[in-house]
């Protein structure tokens, strides 16, 4: 979907598309980190950026949908985040960040997008990427049905270079208790996680 299609989806939503909190694995990883600067890539209506800001992170939320950002800024705590309209394939942050996180961003060249995000991580910083795994199609989980834009552990691991230590990279099974969408979803879903630390 392009920006215009996402704008329409957000306009049609009743108060937002995504669940109120980030995925459980994102909360788990970031809860153990000392707050610093953070970039939430493809922030959508802001759930991850707002969660991080509420925990002391100086957060920038980036998305190419103006409608998504309008919902995000109107949410409680929305004034604590710097919201930027930008496309991950072309946007560049003004400075590197201690944390770069991306949830459910799927593009025709996702590996290149993740490699770009990795460049934004400061030495000692953390990259967290989570999205639908290619096996999610067979599992019947919500999400894209085009395997060409879905993740695999090999794809995400290959998107970072020797400057990164891969702390965790693999499949996750997510249940309706850890919903991606507002209102939850009955079926479980298969995701892929990359948690990498930039060591130099």
TrEMBL record:
<protein>
    <submittedName>
        <fullName>SAM-dependent methyltransferase</fullName>
    </submittedName>
</protein>
<keyword id="KW-0808">Transferase</keyword>
<dbReference type="GO" id="GO:0032259">
    <property type="term" value="P:methylation"/>
</dbReference>
<dbReference type="InterPro" id="IPR041698">
    <property type="entry name" value="Methyltransf_25"/>
</dbReference>
<keyword id="KW-0489">Methyltransferase</keyword>
<dbReference type="GO" id="GO:0008168">
    <property type="term" value="F:methyltransferase activity"/>
</dbReference>
<dbReference type="Pfam" id="PF13649">
    <property type="entry name" value="Methyltransf_25"/>
</dbReference>
<dbReference type="InterPro" id="IPR029063">
    <property type="entry name" value="SAM-dependent_MTases_sf"/>
</dbReference>
<feature type="domain" description="Methyltransferase">
    <location>
        <begin position="39"/>
        <end position="125"/>
    </location>
</feature>
């Amino acid at each position: 979907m392009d920006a215009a299609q996402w704008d329409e989806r957000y306009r049609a939503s009743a108060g937002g598309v995504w669940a109120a909190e980030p995925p459980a694995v994102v909360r788990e990883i970031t809860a153990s980190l000392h707050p610093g600067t953070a970039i939430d890539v493809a922030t959508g209506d802001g759930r991850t950026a707002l969660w991080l800001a509420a925990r002391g992170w100086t957060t920038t939320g980036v998305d190419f949908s103006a409608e998504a950002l309008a919902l995000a800024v109107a949410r409680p705590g929305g004034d604590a985040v710097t919201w930027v309209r930008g496309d991950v394939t072309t946007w560049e942050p003004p400075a590197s960040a201690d944390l770069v996180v991306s949830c459910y961003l799927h593009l025709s060249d996702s590996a290149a997008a993740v490699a770009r995000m990795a460049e934004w991580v400061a030495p000692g910083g953390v990259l967290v990427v989570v999205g639908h795994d290619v096996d999610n199609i067979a599992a019947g989980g919500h999400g894209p049905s085009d395997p060409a834009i879905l993740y695999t552990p090999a794809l995400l691991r290959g998107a970072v270079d020797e400057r990164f230590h891969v702390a965790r990279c693999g499949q996750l099974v997510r249940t309706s208790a850890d919903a991606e969408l507002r209102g939850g979803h009955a079926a479980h879903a298969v995701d892929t996680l990359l948690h990498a630390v930039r060591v130099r």
